[in-house]
Predict the 3D structure of the following.
Amino acid sequence: MIRRMLLFLLPLAAACCAGAPEPCGPVPTPSQMEWQKMEVNMFCHFGPNTFSGLEWGEGTEPEDLFNPEALDCRQWARTAAAAGMKGIIVTAKHHDGFCLWPNPESTHTVAQSSWRGGSGDVLKELSEACREYGLKFGVYISPWDRNDPDYGTPRYNEKYARTLRSVLDGRYGPVFEQWFDGACGEGPGGKRQEYDWPLFRQTVRELQPAAVMFSDVGPDCRWVGNERGSASPDNWSTLSPEGFTPGAGSPPVDTLQCGNKWGSSWIPAETDVSIRPGWFWRDTEEPKSTDELMRIYLESVGRNSLLLLNVPPDTRGRIPEADSLRLMEWKARLGREFAVNLALGVRAEGPRGRSPRYSLKKLTDGDYDTFWAPRDAEFTPSLELPCGTTVDRLVLQEYIPLGQRVASFTVEALAGGEWSEIARGTTIGYKRILSFPPLSADRLRITVTSSKASPVLSEVALYNSLANE
């Protein structure tokens, strides 16, 4: 943990010593920055619902229903790594209450099933597989429990906190993300629980201080507001969570989608979507097309969000062949369409940096941790890039350790001696990808038209997505 913090802080400390801009508003913690750079992770919905075909189990399913006779978590991890993902989050406990590990607080777990003679532990196998393949390990532990007899009473909050402890106490190694939702929906007359969110968050912070916590209101990352795989083009990583709670008390969907420009906390968006129509595996469903996965990538990672793509294991306990093949096709397509950064090493022109350390050449050096920073008075600068070739994608990145600043920008192309606008956008954040019809231009001009402070840009990249077809 200390080493990761030093690696994060050293570039910023060096920058500050050379007269870098002051941070603008809330900024990410080292853990949030590390999380953002992951870009794409795998979600695995797995449990009794895999065998029943339900999305929300009743909690009354017999433990023996869970019986993945060929479970292979190494295959999950191998697939995720080959697809370019950086971590896996598993539904360790969904709303039905069934636990994929021998939770001492429950009698509805793998220990009560006949699977592996009651000695199985999915979390142990998956966490070990993640370490083997260089992936980070995360968990979704639903606070809603349709099986626990104490649910709906004050006793349950303490029991749930102990449930968190039984996963986060180090026995499964570091946990990079703790995924919470606010589900508490048994309908009129059903049991409801007043969740003790301060207790739950305190437990996570105590046991896994580097873990990023997800919910509608963070505290570390937020739901994007839909399950279509689409972040808003106007997406601030800041949010004002005061007065809101996960679930029914969450902010309005448009706020979750866009964040708050002047938000009080750094709570970036995470886009969760399934590769299949449902979250749990069903033999009647097929994975999304490569075209749809590309759309999701461009509208999530390309709109300042992390993508959490659900790939549900089947009743064998393996990622289905069709899903694995689709992921490999998607990875290959990403590799083709973003194969060559045509702006790498190109000399940009515009306002000088405030010092040589923050010069314009930092924009095209391929290093996120270097950046261009103009003088504080430059709120709406224009940059020009020599082009001279066909392009159809532009990637912009802000150096978010100093805050998110840009609120709008335009892109123009010089062709045939005339400038014409080819794209415009609002926020940039960690990464913004713009697509436009292929064009052959002599130069491109990027103009920041509105910003909270003097822009601090890390990278500008250009691609021809059709070059390697």
